[in-house]
């Protein structure tokens, strides 16, 4: 009888040892640390101006579009595919506004960093996109005004500049 207890006890210890080795052999996944504040706790608004520069003359560019691209992480903190939206066309004063609401972000993603780009100009006579104020390389959204009445974080970029010809455009336009 004692031998049966010994064999049962030894079998139990062997099974337990195999389970411990199996569990410890699996890779350990660590959640990455997010250093930046999540941008999307409310509605995010991005506003800016777009101008046409023809020689020394600078005028508002109606019908231009900006693109907003944001890096995102999933609910576990892992990077996902970027999220991109387009602004509405600029008005007669060259003003655009793009918004991202929490309802537009799917699969529990959180935005971590966003950039605004000059996307297109509707005018053949002023269709050369420039990197003035990072219009081509991307203007990083860094500081915002909190609009409590609209529940919005409002970022401002630009002004962005389109030119009538391919010459370097000074950031001071």
- Here the CATH topology of the domain at 43-163 equals Immunoglobulin-like
Strand-residue proportion: 35-45%
* Uncertain runs: 20-27, 29-40
What is the end-to-end distance? 96 Å
Radius of gyration: 27 Å
Question: Roughly what is the average pLDDT, rounded to an integer?
Answer: 79
> What percent of residues adopt helix (DSSP H or I)?
10-25%
* H-E string: HEEEEEEEEEE
Output the structural class.
mainly beta
Keywords: Signal
Signal peptide: 1-25
Pfam family, one: Pollen_Ole_e_1
Protein name: Pollen allergen Ole e 1 family
Secondary-structure blueprint of this entry?
Layout lengths: L1 H24 L17 E12 L2 E4 L4 E9 L5 E8 L8 E6 L9 E11 L7 E2 L9 E2 L3 E4 L4 E12 L10
Parallel strand pairs: 1-10
Antiparallel strand pairs: 1-2, 1-5, 3-4, 3-6, 6-8, 7-10, 9-10
Task: Please explain how this structure is put together.
The protein is mainly beta and 173 residues long. It has a domain at 43-163: Sandwich (Immunoglobulin-like), CATH 2.60.40. Helices cover 14% and strands 40% of the residues. The protein contains one helix and ten strands; from the N terminus they run αββββββββββ. The protein has one helix at residues 2-25; strands spanning 43-54, 57-60, 65-73, 79-86, 95-100, 110-120, 128-129, 139-140, 144-147, 152-163. The strands form two sheets. Strands 1, 2, 5, 7, 9 and 10 form a six-stranded mixed β-sheet that branches. The longest helix has 24 residues, at 2-25. The chain starts with a helix and ends in a 10-residue tail after the last strand.
């Amino acid at each position: 009888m004692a031998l049966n207890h010994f064999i049962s006890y030894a079998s139990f210890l062997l099974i337990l040892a195999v389970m411990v080795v199996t569990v410890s052999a699996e890779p350990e996944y660590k959640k990455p640390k997010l250093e930046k504040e999540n941008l999307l706790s409310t509605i995010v608004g991005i506003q800016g101006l777009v101008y046409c520069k023809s020689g020394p003359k600078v005028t508002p560019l109606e019908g231009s579009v900006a693109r907003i691209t944001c890096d995102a992480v999933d609910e576990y903190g892992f990077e996902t595919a970027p999220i991109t939206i387009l602004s509405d066309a600029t008005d007669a004063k060259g003003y655009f506004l793009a918004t991202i609401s929490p309802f537009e972000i799917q699969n529990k993603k959180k935005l971590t960093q966003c950039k605004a780009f000059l996307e297109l100009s509707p005018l053949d006579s002023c269709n050369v996109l420039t990197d003035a104020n990072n219009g081509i390389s991307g203007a990083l959204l860094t500081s915002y005004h909190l609009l409590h009445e609209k529940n919005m974080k409002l970022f401002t970029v630009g002004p962005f500049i389109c030119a009538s010809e391919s010459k370097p455009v000074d950031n001071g336009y």
